[in-house]
Design goal:
Blueprint: H1 4-9, H2 17-37, H3 43-50, H4 54-60, H5 64-89, H6 93-117, H7 122-149, H8 159-170, H9 181-191
Helix pairs in contact: 2-3, 2-5, 5-6, 5-7, 6-7, 6-9
Organism: Streptomyces demainii
InterPro entries: Homeodomain-like_sf, HTH-type_TetR-like_transc_reg, HTH_TetR, Tet_transcr_reg_TetR-rel_C_sf, TetR_SbtR-like_C
Region (Disordered): 1-21
């Protein structure tokens, strides 16, 4: 994937269903390892989590950057798809918001590692960041609006403000075992509740 610009101009053939499933398994495994151990985790750990050999990972993702960018996009899509699903299956809109924010926090751990990997390619990172905002701000907006309409939370907070606040609470958490960002994020989400 070193010639990503040329690859982007060529129309991609649709992947077979089993190839898409295999790639999803790899990306889920890599995301789980990145959340636990950071983006510098050994490829062998990712391979073990996915139940494949390391050669399979390198065949799909020749460089670590290729893998990290694919995980980033995969996690954005998973977060985007989770919002509406959580609204349908959660006990309340506030519960859906709380559960979605938990997924978002896991994603942010990977995103912070991605920023370090892509330092030399600022334009590439900016493109991914714009994609992240385009996909996730509308989902967070939908969750906030549903909870506000149900009378569960205050209605004067934008999705961008909430996502930025959560992001700020997560900065550096992966390097400090004495700092529990998830607990503070939980307090923030609880604090959105309207007094009964």
């Amino acid at each position: 994937m070193h010639d990503s610009d040329e690859g982007a101009r060529r129309p991609a053939r649709p992947k077979r269903a089993d190839a898409r499933r295999n790639e999803k398994t790899l990306l889920d495994a890599a995301a789980a390892i990145f959340v636990r151990s950071g983006v510098e985790a050994p490829v062998r750990d990712i391979a073990a989590e996915a139940g494949v050999g390391t050669a399979t990972i390198y065949r799909h993702f020749p460089t670590r950057s290729d893998l990290i960018i694919a995980v980033y996009r995969h996690q954005v899509e998973a977060c985007a798809e989770a919002g509406p699903a959580l609204l349908e299956t959660s006990a309340s809109p506030h519960d859906a918001l709380r559960r979605w924010i938990d997924l978002f926090v896991d994603f942010l751990v990977t995103k912070h590692g991605l920023a370090a990997v892509l330092q030399a390619d600022n334009a590439g990172f900016q493109t991914l960041h714009a994609y992240f905002l385009d996909r996730l701000v509308p989902v967070c907006t939908q969750l906030l609006e549903a909870a506000a309409e149900a009378g569960e939370i205050r209605s004067d907070l934008s999705a961008y403000e909430l996502m930025r606040g959560v992001g700020n609470l997560c900065i550096g958490a992966e390097n400090d075992p004495h700092y529990d960002a998830r607990r503070l994020v939980g307090l923030l989400i609880a604090g959105l509740r309207r007094p009964r």
